Each structure stands twice: as C-alpha cells, then as structure tokens.
Request: fold
Amino acid sequence: MPAALRNRQTEQRYALDPTHSFVIGRSQVAQLRITNGEVAPRHTFMEARPAANGVSWWVWDGGSTNGTRLNGQRLDFEPVALQPGDEIELPGDVVFVFDADIATPSPARTPPLPLEPPAEVLRQVALELLEPVVIRGDYRASPLGHEVRAAVRRAAEGPIDRTLAEALAAVQALDGLDRGDVVGAFRSLLSELDREQPPGHRYVRLTQYLVAVSPDEAGTVLCRRVCERLEAGGDAVPYASLLGASAHEPSLHEVLHRAAALRDRGHVVAREVLRELARTDPSPWWNLLCEHRYPAPLDAPSAAPEGCDTLPARVAQAVRAGTSDPDAGLVAEVVQQLRATAVSDVDKRSALRSLLQDLTGQRPPAGRRF
Reply:
C-alpha cells in the first residue's frame, strides 16, 4: 500500500506520489485543497526523498501565518522526516495522519539527500521562495523578509535551490539598497516566472534581475552556476545570455570586453564563458565568436595569415605578440575546445582570430551597448 495522508475526521485517504511534491493549501493548484480561510494558498509542503529502504517523506511549513503542527510541534521551513502515524495539523482543527507503506517504512530522521529537481519543479521553487515577500509583503528582519531567509536555508539542499539561495543572499547583503527597488524587481520577476515560458527562460530572467542589482563577482558566479544547473536539467542556454540585463542578448564579443573591464578577474570570467558555451551546441558558439569581426558566414573562404597554418602556431604567435599570461591561459583553453569540435580549420582560425583581437584590446564598434 503506497504512502498516503488520511483525514482523521473523515477517514478519507489522499495517495502520495513519490515522483511529485505534495502541497496542502487553499490554492487551486494544491494537491490537497482546503478552503478554510485560515489556511494559506501553499500552506504545507511534502516531498519524497531517496532512502536506503525506498523513500522517506518529509514535511515543512510554507511560511504560513497560522502555521503547521507535527504531533503538536509547530513546523518551520526546515523539512522534518515523517514517521508512520505522525499527525499533521492545520488551522481549523484539520488533522491528517501519515500512513506509510509498511513494505518500505520511513527511516530514522536523518538529514535529507539532495535531489536534482525537474524543470517544472524549478519554477515552483522560485515561486515558493518569493511568495512571502511579493504576495504578503512581509519585510521583517531584512528587505526580503525573514521568511525568505528561512526558505533560503531550507532550499539549500538541492543544486538549483542553492543557486537561488545564493542569489537571494547576495541581494540581502547589499548595503543601502532601497526596499522598494528590491520589492519592485521581485514583483516583476514573479510575473515573469508565472508566464508560460520554457523553464530555461525563467531562469535567464531570474539571473538577469539579480545581476542588475548585484553586478559584481557574486553575480558572475551566480550566472555560471545557474547555467550549469540549467544544462544539467536539459535547459541549456548560451552562458553569454545570462550576463546581460539589457534587452538584447550580448554577443561573446561584448561579454569578453565586459570581462576585460573587470581587470584581474576578467580572464577568469571569460574562461568560464567559453567553457559553458563549449558544453552547448557549438554552432552558436562560433557565431558569437565571429559575430562582429566576421559578419560573413563561417563557411566562407578565409585565408590564414602567413606562418599561422596551424592552431598551435597561431596561439604561439599571439603569445609572443604580447598577450598577458592570463590571456595566454585562456587562449590555450580555447584551443582545446576548438580541437574537440568538428568544425573546419578555417572556421577555427577565424574564431580564434576574433578572440585574440578581443583579448589584445580592440574595442567593439561604436554605439554598441555593454
């Protein structure tokens, strides 16, 4: 018999699907809907997590005003493992008994194992994290409210959740940030997240908002981690698109110049850009590399400079010409990526030439936005 919640008053049972999270609340999208006005739209959350003898179910409160009680003890954002017979109490004397599968009993209460949530769950995570501030306007303890801070701690168990946690923490740490600006930005973000878009685009928008208010090293690291998590979840997007909060997607040409403006860590940013781009479809990578320097199609004839018929020779010449050590390291890494892809030598030379021009200080065409 699968795990289920049983209403103690009516004896009605609600099956728990271990492949999906389970929400109790007033919302129309809640798996177990309660119309009591004292119950929040997403009042209580449950999810299954891997265990040595099957799965274990965990429960936590979603930041509700009136709270959730487990065996008489009020829950917070920290998930608690359920045991057979545990009673979950909601406002209005609504009590559900946790009936576990006898064949695969829940283990002792041990720290949960991290899960890699599917794409649709990522959207729900963002909505849950932002709802206390954006919907209820609770700003206690910080501009984003102590509920969000608690949610951040709870969310730090999964890879993408850690990214969101760091994002919110970075915003909270900003000195002198106007509360209205933060709330306005996240209100807009919530609207973006709630639209029907591919999950990857939601997280591009999330990152763009965060970079807009925190365009420093934390923002750059955040971009990289968001991209890694999107790729792991099958929502790969060019890393360059995550570095721009402007209306257009910046070319790699722009990204590299922006990285160069960061001086001593510019090459680190550029290296991460190239690494992430190389993990995705190589076609847009070459297009980005050559977008402004070489507007002609990549398969157009292109003569290699004298003495640079091979990629190693081209790199060696660039290094001798005065490229700094960090840039030389970047070029070497680019060459490795070039060698690993199935494109022609002409295209490789064109791409590398464009990159080297960027690294040696040439500026993009006038009027381009960064």
Notes: The chain has a mean pLDDT of 54.
